[in-house]
Amino acid sequence: MAKKKRGFDDDDGFFDDAEEQLFENDDEEEKSRSQLKREMLARRDLGEELVALSEARLAKIPLSEETLDAVHDGQRFTRRALKRQLTRIAALITEYEEEDAIRQALEQLYQPHRDEVRRQHEVEQWRDALIAGDEDLMQSLLARFPEIDRQHLRQLVRNTIKERERDKPPKSARVLYQYLFSFVEEK
Q1: End-to-end CA, the chain
Q2: CATH number for the domain including 44?
């Protein structure tokens, strides 16, 4: 009696049908199996981003009806079913969608948030530099934002320094941050 083979055969279902399609040779340039796998995983990650979007944001992404239905289904699934659905979404993106257009639309969705975070970080750096005594920054801020009240700004910086020296909660530091951020928001 022959022993059963313990490895994986090519036809034992190790790869999903969608993954198998990716590995078939097209008439296009030949890509390695590793490269095809990386591209498929990148599309699966793209599908994961799509599944995580709200309905309003999803409406802004250019998707075919079939892909959109698959994304909606993926939003209901968990664990293994979600993994299979992400593979299906990746295959649909490969077959029906223009991947670059989807990535560009996602980038445009996230850009306002990234700009906001960048502004917040910039104001935090200003606050910290002002507390450290950077007079050059004080002058450049006054030149950049002429509507800043110099006395009020200096008072907020002094109060923040006093709070730090006395180990008190950073109330003035928050007020200083909000004051500076109000000028960045107006711009």
Answers
A1: 82
A2: 1.10.60
pLDDT means per 10 residues, the chain with 187 residues, are: 47 50 56 90 91 90 90 91 92 84 88 88 94 92 92 94 91 93 77
Of 121, 122, 118, 123, nearest in space to 175 by CA: 123
Give the per-residue pLDDT at 24: 54
pTM of the predicted protein model = 0.52
In this structure, is residue 179 part of a structural domain?
yes
Same domain, yes or no: 30 and 89: yes
Question: Do residues 58 and 92 both lie within one domain?
Answer: yes
Can you tell me the distance from the alpha carbon of 61 to that of 63, in angstroms, rounded to the nearest whole number?
A: 6
Q: Which structural domain, as residue segments, surrounds residue 82?
A: 17-97
Q: Dihedral of the CA atoms 145, 147, 151, 156 (nearest 10)?
A: -70
Helix axes 135-144, 99-131, angle to 10 degrees: 120
Beta-carbon neighbour count of residue 101 at 10 Å?
A: 12
42 lies in some domain: yes
